[in-house]
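**User:** Here is a favour to ask of a fellow structure person. Please take any protein you like and set down a full record of it. No explanation is needed for now; the record alone will do.

**Assistant:**
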Amino acid sequence: MVAGFAARGWARFPTDPALARWAEAALPAARRALAEATEALRCGGTWDVGLEALPNDAEGAVAGVPLAGAAIDAVETLAGRLQLHRAQLSTVHPGYPRPWVEEGEAAFRYRLLRDAAHVDGLLPVGSERRRMIREPHAWILGLPLTRTAPGASPPVVWEGSHHIMSRAFSEALAGHPLSRWAEVDVTEAYHAARREVFAVCDRVVLHAEPGEAVLIHRLALHGISPWTEAAEAPPEGRIIAYFRPELPGGIADWLTV
């Protein structure tokens, strides 16, 4: 595994020829998928979530080009070879983020000032949108498809935050039977852990180019940075394909760091 990943909760992989070939093949497919999307862009027309949008196969291949390289070898050391879902195509455009009708003032302020920092897999449940662990991912792998300036809303991660989150969720679930963990409200524990992370962990910007990769620990607090005014990107925007396969061992394994 990449040196330091377990401690930091993130890793960046340099340009890999095999991954560069995959990104080159994936970009035209991504353009077509995004052009055919029917869901309106979020954040005032500046963000396309692109869930399950890339037409890759269960091995990650696109248009016959395999998903391969050092980053792929590395993630397989974490949880073995996992069947992959269709990748998310997170696409950001200049001006991100802007206010929009689906997001209140406090949520927009959090997006603007705190990068909408979150832990994947915690879903808002019910009318009060209480956080519960419903999608225990194995890891988060980001593969850039477009070449952009560093200020074009790269992902960010709080270094070491996965340790704080693991402790907070473990304490919140203590005393509940394992079979009921997905029903436990972890909202307050999550919010308290986020505050601790902001106070003690360094925010790291993970800008990368096609052929490179960024790996984020499943428990790490991460988000999307605002687009800086002078940042340049191609017309289709900043596109990153994300793989987040679910962990076969469920929440119990998800809690480990």
